[in-house]
Amino acid sequence: MDFTKFNIIANYNTQRTDLFPSTTAAVEQLEEVFNIKVDQDYKEYVTRYGCGILGGTYVRVYLPETIEALYPEWKERITQYWFWDEGKAVLTKEQVLESVIMGDTFDGDEIILYNHQYYILPRHEEMIYHTGHTLGGTIDWLCTAGILTEAFAERDFEPFDPAEYLK
Fold first, then answer.
1. InterPro entries, per this entry (predicted)?
2. How confident is the model over 58-77, as pLDDT tens digits?
C-alpha cells in the first residue's frame, strides 16, 4: 500500500500535526515477544505515522508497545466473552487466542494477526472476516468493503500521543 498518500490532519485536541512513530527496534521486539513476523505494511505504517487514527476517525493501528501493554487484558476478554461462533469456519476460538491484536476501529471491531494473515473480529457481528496478508489490504477492506461501516475514500491521519491512549 502506498502510505505516502495519507493526508495528515491536526489533532482535534492539540491542533498539532506532530507524529508519534515507533521504531524498527520496537517492531523487532514485538516480533520476538510474540514469535510472529509482521508484514512490511505494518512496519512502514508504525514507523512512518505511528500512533493515530486513519480515515477520519475509523482505523487505529497499534504501536508495538501498545500491543504488548494491551495483550494480556485483550486475551482475557476474548477468553471470557467469546461470541464469534458464526466465524468458526474462518478461525476457531483457539486460533484467535493464538493471534495478536494489531488494532481496532472506532466502532470496536478488532484487527488481529494470525499465521501471517489479518482478520477482523467485529463488535456487532458473530462472523470473523479474513482481510488478507497485509495491513494495507486490511485498511483498504475496512474503508471500502462497506460491510462494517459505509465505504469512504478519505485517508486522513490524525496523530495522537500514545501516552495519552495508555493512561
1. Knr4/Smi1-like_sf
2. 899 999 999 999 999 999 99
Residue 102 near residue 61 (C-beta atoms within 8 A): yes
Q: What is the pTM of this model?
A: 0.95
Give the gyration radius of the chain's Cα atoms: 15
Strands 59-61 and 129-132: unpaired
How far, in Å, are 60, 84, 127, 148 from residue 124 at the CA level?
Answer: 18, 10, 9, 9
The CATH architecture that domain 3-165 belongs to is: 3-Layer(aba) Sandwich (3.40)
Nine cell digits for residue 130: 479474513
Domains of the chain, by residue range, sit at 3-165
- 3-state SS string for 55-115: CCCCEEECCHHHHHHHHHHHHHHHHHCCCCHHHCCCCCHHHHHCCEEEEEECCCCEEEEEC
